[in-house]
Amino acid sequence: MGKGTQALRLRLELKVPHVSTGDILREAVKRGTPLGRRAGSFMEAGKLVPDDLMGDLIAARLAQPDAAPGFILDGFPRTAAQVAILDRVLESVGEPLDRVLALVAAEKEIVRRLSGRRICPACGSVFHVESRPSASPGACDGCGTALVQRPDDEEKVIRDRLGVFEAQTLPVAAIYRERGLLREVDAAGDSDAVFAALKIALATP
Ligand code: AMP
């Protein structure tokens, strides 16, 4: 199961907000805000949105009162520069980072999961053509809206995203490994198995 699904489960468990930079950006694109207009083309191409935009976004989000007791960051930081930005933001809000969790899966499995993912543009429910099909093909179980594929889940863009991950995000894992904060969790199992492993990774010092 993927990071978004697991982050939502952790939110219920820990009762702190789930801050997904991808969700915030997709919402901004949908609403056509200035941020959305600048970020949209990067996202569709599977590229990372520039660090200065991401820095402003995360600083504004973590300064919201609901983030005061803590938060789960999903999809941030994704570059070494964003690690430095996050360090500064965390210092200013007085919240140290407790853990960094990395979900680890084979490339073939990542491509299978992303290329089969379908989402409901109305309510945000997430399906998968093989592992979580909707009851009526192509329609949301919750609200009946026609399901869509994220533009960046097309196979060619997925390959580009994996390249970006290797070049720009793997160094982030190395930084947090060095700081002793990184816990790598096998994402190959079903949602319950991955969630159990994540909870153990959070609980063990
Ligand atoms: P996600 O939903 O986390 O897979 O993010 C979807 C897309 O949003 C990414 O492929 C990037 O284009 C953009 N994005 C999300 N988080 C970041 C980030 N921390 N830095 C730069 N771009 C991001």
Instruction: Please report the first level of CATH classification, the CATH class of the largest domain.
Output: Alpha Beta
CATH topology of the largest domain: Rossmann fold
* CATH superfamily descriptor of the largest domain: P-loop containing nucleotide triphosphate hydrolases
Number of DSSP-assigned strands? 6
What gap, in angstroms, lies between the N and C termini?
A: 24 Å
Mean pLDDT: 94
Number of helices: 8
Fraction in beta strands: 5-15%
Helix content: 40-55%
The CATH architecture of the largest domain can be given as: 3-Layer(aba) Sandwich
Low-confidence stretches: none
Q: Per the principal axes of the C-alpha atoms, what is the gross shape?
A: globular
Radius of gyration: 17 Å
Decide which structural class fits the backbone: mainly alpha
Short summary of the structure?
This protein is mainly alpha-helical and 205 residues long.
Give the topology, please.
Elements: H1 3-14, E1 18-20, H2 21-31, H3 34-44, H4 51-62, E2 72-74, H5 80-93, E3 100-104, H6 107-115, E4 117-119, E5 126-128, H7 155-178, E6 182-186, H8 191-203
Parallel strand pairs: 1-2, 3-6
Antiparallel strand pairs: 4-5
Bound molecules: adenosine monophosphate.
Main attributes?
single chain, 205 residues, mainly alpha, Rossmann fold, two-stranded parallel ribbon, 8 helices, 6 strands, 11% strand, binds adenosine monophosphate
